[in-house]
Amino acid sequence: MKPKILLIYTGGTIGMIKNPITKALQAFDFEKLLLHIPELHQLECDITSISYEHPIDSSNMNVSHWKELGDIIHARYDDYNGFVILHGSDTMAYTGSALSFMFEHLTKPIIFTGSQLPIGDLRTDAKENLITAIQLAAQHEAGVPIIKEVCIYFEYQLYRANRTVKVNADHFEAFASPNYPPLAVSGVHLNIDKSLLWQHGYDEFAAAQEEQNKRPHHSAERQNAQVANVNDTVDQWRMNYRPELVKEVVVLKLFPGITREIVAAICSIGGLRGIVLETFGSGNAPSEPWFIDIMQETLGRGVYIVNVTQCRGGAVDMGKYETSVKLKEIGMVSGKDITTEAALTKMMYLLKYTNTLSDFKTYFEDSLRGELTV
Ligand code: ASP
Questions:
Q1: What is the DSSP code string of 34-69?
Q2: Which backbone phi and psi does 67 adopt, to 5 degrees?
Q3: 57 lines ligand 1 (CB under 6 A)
Q4: Residue 306 forms beta bridges with which residues?
Q5: Is residue 58 within 6 Å of ligand 1 at its C-beta?
Q6: What is the DSSP letter of 204?
Q7: Choice from 25, 69, 86, 90 to test ligand 1 binding pocket (greatest atom count within 8 A of CB)
């Protein structure tokens, strides 16, 4: 049986053409997009494609679009072996991160790709990106998809989506994954490094499922002892779809000279539930009393604050420098080596699905989908 892949076109440069009057790139008909890649018919998989009725530039993506995309995948989850999403690169890291949290216990790949040049352009990077993304989504062993997580494929590299950042507006190599190596590299061969893939709990699940299948061969006594355990493991591993996110969050990037008025104004936005605080280096911030006071008062009002570093790579380590000791003392959550994109979407997710700061902190500082290093 050939793997069945669902290709979803949301918009982005890959399917854009130049408006003859304004000269600006704008989305066009997806059917025409497929006409440009007859190679797709040669792939060893069955591809079904669907398109947003009104494809969008990814700068227009919002939380409702993420849910719409999640709903499309969720409704068809059992019908396909893998999903490939065509998406603008500008906010791909955010959408990829958001979907990684929405889908727990994925057993299939969701691979985002796009391009820097439209598919109709002579020098386009779209064809390789699209063809290889589909090939990666179709990789399986004994009928089981090899990749079971949300990824981004761009310019010969497959990344864990919630580890990525867009780093270049011009180069074909538009993405980086500063704190986690690429999961696969495409050269003459497609090299997937299986040791890097997100398999969290999957092996126990697969073993339990196998045990369930073997059950009739076991003695009644042995069965009784094992059945409960095995059933529990299998049940716990069902794919969970949790698409509701809390939007009342903000990213506050510190800079030398930031004033008390600015920080106070942002922290007192009505209805605010969470702040991703982009600090310096390994999680450092001004130690001036006014800054610590505002942070403490904000936390006291029940607004959660996560400390992430503005550095491209490396991790927050509160307490390493004097300038972060107080942040730890007042109860700020450590984002460790998470990206801002993943921190923001993880915060939106956990604000919805946890009830106390202590639960939020426990889950945030743990790796839920491989988004940070514990
Ligand atoms: N502005 C485009 C978008 O993000 C860029 C791209 O497709 O790469 O939709």
A1: HHT-GGGGGSSSEEEEEE-SS---GGG--HHHHHHH
A2: -65, -40
A3: yes
A4: 276, 333
A5: yes
A6: H
A7: 90
- 279 neighbors 254 (Cβ within 8 angstroms): yes
CA atoms of 37 and 35, how far apart (whole Å): 5
Helix (H, G, I), strand (E, B) or coil at 186: strand
Q: Calculate how far, in angstroms, residue 115's C-alpha sits from the geometric centre of ligand 1.
A: 8
* 281 neighbors 307 (Cβ within 8 angstroms): no
> From ligand 1's centre to the CA of 188, what distance in Å?
28
The CB of 113 under 6 Å from ligand 1? The reply is no
Query: pLDDT truncated to tens, each residue of the chain (374 aa)?
Result: 899 999 999 999 888 877 888 888 877 777 776 777 888 889 999 999 998 888 899 999 999 999 999 999 999 999 999 999 999 999 999 999 999 999 999 999 999 999 999 887 889 999 999 999 999 999 999 889 999 999 999 999 999 999 999 999 999 999 999 999 999 999 999 999 999 999 877 877 788 878 877 766 555 655 565 667 777 777 777 899 999 999 999 999 999 999 999 999 999 999 999 999 999 999 999 999 999 999 999 999 999 999 999 999 999 999 999 899 999 999 999 999 999 999 999 999 999 999 999 999 999 999 999 999 99
Cα(33) to centroid(ligand 1), Å? 15
Nearest CA, atom 6, ligand 1: 88
Q: What is the largest CA-CA distance in the chain?
A: 78
Name the packing angle between helices 202-214 and 220-236 (round to 10°). Answer: 140
What's at 301, amino acid-wise?
Answer: R
10 included as an active-site residue:
no
């911030």: which residue's tokens? Answer: 285
Compute the distance between CA of residue 292 and CA of residue 289 in angstroms, rounded to an integer: 5
Is the sign of the CA dihedral 322, 324, 329, 330 positive or negative? positive
Backbone dihedral region for residue 281 (phi beyond 0: left; psi -120 to 50: alpha; all else: beta): left
Contact of 184 with 193, CB cutoff 8 Å: yes
- Adjacent-strand bridge partners of 112: 85, 152
Contact 234, 209 (CB under 8 A): yes
Nearest to 193 by CA among 250, 273, 114, 136: 136
